[in-house]
Amino acid sequence: MREKIESASFFIGRGDDHDLISFGSGQPDMAPPLSAYHVLDNYREFKYGLIQGELALREALAREYPEATPDQFVITNGASEAIDLSLRCIAANGGAGGKVLLPRPYYYSYPFNVTFAGLTPIYYDLDQSGKIDFESFARLVPECAAVLINSPSNPTGTVQEIATLRKIEKLCDELGKYVISDEVYKDLVYVRENYLLSGKKVLTVNSFSKTYAMCGLRVGYLYSKNKEIVQGVIEMKTHTSMNTSIMGQAMALASMKERDAYVAPHVAIWRERRDMIYEGMRALGLDLYKPEGAFYVLPKFKEPTRVMHDLYYNYRMITYDGTWFGAPDRLRFSYALDAQKIKEGLNRLEKFLNTEYRNY
Predict the structure, then answer these.
(1) Tell me, what DSSP letter sits at residue 213?
(2) Which contiguous run of DSSP H or E holds residue 118?
(3) Strands 296-297 and 219-223: what pairing?
(4) Concatenated DSSP letters for 267-320?
(5) Taking a C-beta distance cutoff of 8 angstroms, is the pair 74, 225 a contact?
(6) What is the value of pTM for the model shown?
(7) What is the rounded average pLDDT for all residues in the chain?
(8) Strand, helix or coil at 55?
(9) Chosen CATH of 34-256 out of 3.40.50.300, 3.40.640.10, 3.40.190.10, 3.30.1050.10
(10) What's the rounded Cα separation, in Å, for the pair 22 and 312?
(11) Whole-angstrom distance, CA of residue 304 vs CA of residue 223
């Protein structure tokens, strides 16, 4: 009898079986920069670290952002902790019980992050191309304490238009609304350079997980020129997780030294895989956005929850139910796996579409 799959937690950590094709977790299959490994050769530090994060890493990050200073960064346990603590600080700073505006489709943790912070998620729908309709967005902003922007997006793979992002900056600045900008895929963009949102209440969230293939080390960060939020996050972190792994931070810092040699060649690989899975799914007759960044596709299916179960139990393929992302007519596929597995996965998907899916 098949076990019912009700959340992504069912799949996380699976995928080591040689016969299993995992289009599930957004975890790069490529190795981190070699310099990260060499940190371990003589590493001997196992003490508590600075709650805000090691100064050398914050200094290096500050050099990547215009007119930034190290005191504007907090190193966190992945981007997830940065989002969690930011939301809790917004609630503590007068936003308690307030609303947070989310795009739909959304990353599956966002509604939970908002709710756990004592806030209420409300939604606007992305348009048919996966972009923000500014008029729909603007109508809801005045009633919110904060908005969350995710570009490039998980799960759609779309990159928001610069003109729209500038309108969002201006509107939220005028209304005094917090903007949490989740930019963990900012280095994995195929169409242009990433646009950095800015403003008095903009909180930028990023991570080493995707750019440098270091998911398990859980090194992310918050960057903001809003001193109140930065200090609030540090104080809250003091009483929750304390410091982020100092060994992980050392490996992250070492990886940054290889940025120029590492990132561009890997973006080229992601683009090739994007083209392979996008064109392969289009050839199978599926309807999906063409990703402009990140490494996800979100094709439409009849009864996607049933499809997810059948693909896993009958075809040894992991996919994520679009219902978890606010897209109940779709499935999310991550193409963070090598080309041969993508090809094999497309072959299995074709067999499925030509057999039992016909009877749905």
Answers:
(1) T
(2) none
(3) unpaired
(4) HHHHHHHHHHHHHHHHHTT---PPPSBTTEE--B-SSHHHHHHHHHHHH-EE-E
(5) no
(6) 0.95
(7) 95
(8) helix
(9) 3.40.640.10
(10) 9
(11) 37
Report CA 43 to chain centroid distance, whole Å.
30
Q: Given a cut of 80, is residue 151 above it in pLDDT?
A: yes
DSSP 147: E
Do 126 and 103 contact (CB within 8 A), yes or no?
yes
Q: What is the mean pLDDT of residues 307-311?
A: 97
Q: Six-digit token pair at 140?
A: 């809801």
2 token code pair: 């098949």
* Rounded Cα distance, 209 and 61, in Å: 15
In contact, 102 and 114? CB cutoff 8 Å: yes
Residue 6 corresponds to which tokens in the numbers above? Answer: 């009700």
pLDDT in tens, 22-58: 999 888 999 999 999 999 999 999 999 999 999 999 9
Read off the DSSP letter of residue 31. Answer: P
- Angle formed by the axes of helices 55-62 and 246-256, nearest 10°: 30
Does 16 score more than 70 pLDDT?
Answer: no
Residues contacting residue 189 through CB under 8 Å, at least 6 positions apart: 152, 159, 267, 292, 293
Backbone conformation region of residue 323, classed left if phi is above 0, alpha if psi is from -120 to 50, else beta: alpha
Alpha helices in the chain (DSSP H): 34-38, 55-62, 78-90, 110-116, 134-140, 162-175, 227-238, 246-256, 259-283, 304-315, 339-354
Does residue 15 surpass a pLDDT of 70? no
Give dist(CA 260, CA 119) in Å, integer: 40
Short-list 111, 32, 48, CA closest to 242: 48
- What is the pLDDT at residue 268? 96
- State the Rg of the chain over Cα: 20
Residues of the chain with CATH 3.90.1150.10: 8-26+260-359
What is the H or E stretch that residue 163 is in? helix 162-175
Distance CA 315, CA 299 (A): 18
C-alpha separations of 235 from 114, 115, 179, 269 in Å: 19, 21, 20, 40
Q: How far apart are CA 215 and CA 208, in angstroms?
A: 7
Is the pLDDT at 119 greater than 70? The verdict is yes
* CATH H-level, domain 8-26+260-359: superfamily: Aspartate Aminotransferase, domain 1 (3.90.1150.10)
- At 188, the amino acid letter reads L
